[in-house]
Amino acid sequence: MTDFLGLDVTLEPSIAAPNLPIVGTQGNPAAGAAVVLTPSATAWTRPLVLTARLVTSAVVATRSPIVEYLLADGEILAYAPSVLTVGASSTYTFTFSSVLPGNDGNGSQVGGYNYQVMHHLWLPPSAQVKIVVLNMDVGDQWSMITYAYEVAQPPSSEVRHRLQPHQAIS
Prior knowledge:
Number of strands: 13
Number of helices: 3
Shape: globular
């Protein structure tokens, strides 16, 4: 039991003290396709950072990347839209992060680099993190994909019950 704001709270050990982040890279998807990452088929994960470079064709005027969190059955748990758009014939690197210091949720842009907010939430096994793009052209290409996420043991049934999709984001 832990005293938290005067309340007795039982913390799930695996959530209270997760492992060190797992960092990696992923191959490029086909041109015109979304970036899809499945952190773990067996463990709960919390995405920390997802970075990818988008090179756009000259065909479509503007695009807007969105990070989606999908459950194993394809249900969208949450999403984090970019507040910045990408123009035609451009190259931008997006960093979606749940740990940006001082970020107010509006994102920021420095040159061709875009820093965006991701939700700071735990995803169940086999959930996916996906970068989709509104108005994506078949000639647009994602590359240089890197990620970091934390892994935890499956929470108890009591905690799992409290983390239903409609309750996970607030």
